[in-house]
Amino acid sequence: MADLLKEAPLTAVQVEALVVMKIIKHCSQTFPTTATGFLVGMDAKSTLEVTNSFPFPTIEPPTTDGHHDNNAISNHTAAAPRHKANTIYQNEMIRKLREVNVDANNVGWYTSANLGNFINLNMVENQIHYQKELNERTVAIVHDVSRSSQGSLSLRAFRLSPAFMLAYKENKFNTESLQKSSFRYQDILLELPLQIHNSHLLTSFLHTLPTRPSETTQPSIPPSLSEIPADAPSPLHPNLTTLSLSIDPFLSQTADLLLDSIESHHTELANHQYYQRSLAREQAKITAWQQKRKAENASRALTKQSPLPEDEWQRLFKLPTEPGRLEVLLNSRQVEQYARQVDGFAAGVTGKMFAVRSNLLPEKME
User: Fold this and answer.
1) pLDDT tens-digit profile of 38-74?
2) What's the CA gap between 156 and 144, in Å, rounded?
């Protein structure tokens, strides 16, 4: 039976409401610094149940000349799940949870994000640390604090695809390997549907809150408009915020992040083009040397001398090393994430613009 459970692929993630509140509180308190923690729960057939979460303790990053670098602090915090001290803390916490007979299976980790900026090398290495060494059936839950501040909860669950795990294990992220395996940047992450679960006791309590008013306290409906008092409060107060044509500030911030990612993509592309030019120059030198050596051996053969070795070029010339394509793949996936967010933010603004386009366009001349 246990083998069948392990073979069944994960199709959904179920998170307890208390865990969601703990993740939101931890990520909001540390914003804009990245917040990380580990998750415990159970593996029930094809659903991964997350029943508790614990934040990782804060580890002070090394200082340079008595000052803290903000980028170093952010990278140090984002890599917290792989620190040896946090691994010891996590194992000790799981051991204590087992002593009190509660769910103590490692099911993954969580991290915070700002406007979808979470697809990077730290996130991938953290998930590989969990999915490869601790437990294969683990997930990474990402909570976007900026998106959630708009009123809609942004909580997503991801896993690394088997194709990416195999390529990372073999360290095959060069152009030839990617072309043979047809690996694309869309194949890096697998998103699982996430459900929030409430306990039966909490569900029963929520059902008792919206009590129906009694008939004695229910206000009577006036028979006509003339009998409505002038000072009666309006049930629906007018809200002019929805009529504002100003562009969402989150849209402009996401567009700036999108431009930064595109610029990083062009930088990586320029580095790869420089490698191709260097490789072409070295190969041209090798070809010229081989032709020269063949001519020398031909002339030595006429004089009945022993030929010179033709494989000395491997010692004389050194081909440049191809830069890894992993950063390019991750950056391309991040660009796609930003593009989807821009599409979502622009939908509301575009609808308002079409609604008032008659006032924005110049009047037609008759």
Assistant:
1) 898 888 888 888 888 888 887 665 555 555 455 555 5
2) 9
Collapse the DSSP code of 302 into the 3-class scheme (helix H, G, I; strand E, B; otherwise coil) and give the result: helix
Query: What's the rounded Cα separation, in Å, for the pair 81 and 124?
Result: 11
For residue 270, report the phi and psi dihedrals to the nearest 5 degrees: -65, -40
Half-sphere exposure of 188 (CA within 13 A, CB side): 26
174 and 324 Cβ atoms separated by less than 8 Å? yes
Contact, 137 vs 48, CB < 8 A?
yes
DSSP 8-state class, residue 139: E
Helix (H) or strand (E) holding 189: strand 189-192
Helices 162-170 and 121-128, interaxial angle, to 10°? Answer: 90
CA 206 – CA 202 distance, rounded (Å): 6
Spacing of C-alpha 221 from chain mean position: 53
Give the residue among 30, 26, 54, 28 at the shortest CA–CA distance from 40.
Answer: 54
The answer to whether the CB of 114 falls within 8 A of the CB of 146 is: yes
Cα 204 to its chain centre, rounded Å, is 35
Q: How many C-beta atoms lie closer than 10 Å to residue 115's C-beta?
A: 20
- DSSP assignment of 205-256, as one string? HHHHSSPPPPTTTSPPPPSSGGGS-TTPPPSS---GGGG--PPPHHHHHHHH
The dihedral through the CA atoms of 82, 83, 84, 90 has a sign that is negative
Of 179, 189, 191, 122, nearest to 325 by C-alpha is: 179
Return d(Cα 50, Cα 149) in angstroms, integer: 23
Handedness of CA 259, 260, 262, 267 (dihedral sign): positive
State how far the Cα of 183 lies from the Cα of 342, in Å rounded to an integer. Answer: 26
| Max avg pLDDT among 56-65, 121-130, 209-218 | 121-130
Rounded to the nearest angstrom, the gap between the alpha carbon of residue 315 and the centroid of all alpha carbons in its chain is: 44
pLDDT higher than threshold 50 for residue 133: yes
Would the pLDDT of 273 be above 80?
A: yes
Provide the token pair at 271. Answer: 């580095």
Q: Which residue, chain included where needed, has tokens 């929805």? A: 242
Across the chain, mean pLDDT equals 78
Q: Write the DSSP symbol of residue 318.
A: -
What global pTM score does this model have? 0.72
- Cβ neighbours of residue 293 under 8 Å, at least 6 residues apart? 308, 310, 312, 313
